[in-house]
Specification:
The chain is an all-alpha fold. It is 63% helix and 0% strand. The N and C termini lie far apart (88 Å). The N terminus and C terminus are likely disordered.
Length: 200
Amino acid sequence: MSTTRDRRTSGRWRADEPPTTGAAAQDAEPDPEQVARAIALRMLTDAPRSRAQLAQAMARKGVPDEVAVAVLDRFTEVGLVDDAQYAELVVRSRHTERGLASAALRAELRRRGVDDEVSQQALTQLTPEQEESTARRLVARKLDATAALDTPVRVRRTLAALGRKGYPPGLVARLVREELARREVSDALELVDDAGALDA
């Protein structure tokens, strides 16, 4: 009996068993649909995502467009992907946690691939009164944080900080004026105009 035959019959190696080493041991070409589903499930487990974010992740892994569309359509049907709910969540959380105004939230949703119409609907939950109330708190907080600095510097930094969060210059300038007046910091009032022209 040959050595090969002995090895086959001894149980140490059989022709019908997959090899454990070499090129033949590599996995077969992964199924694109399985890859797409795995990507979506993994990302959605970490945090809610927009449809566009999931599609981009699939494209980076080489998933064909038609496969990605089919998988995302199915995930949308069962409620795992919902851009309207996602946009509402982003608006609530980013306004509450970071104090972002509508303009900044709209830009962020666009970066995340959310359709402008969907974004606009989500932004309706944020009223002008809520934005002004949040902006007023941010102004007071920024002025508190810069209390040790010269008044003109405090004004510039407060205007710039709220500008980066998407608040209109006119609104910010008015709130800064009101807060300075409340604190009786009269020497800075002339530094604030309706255009909010000072930069950081």
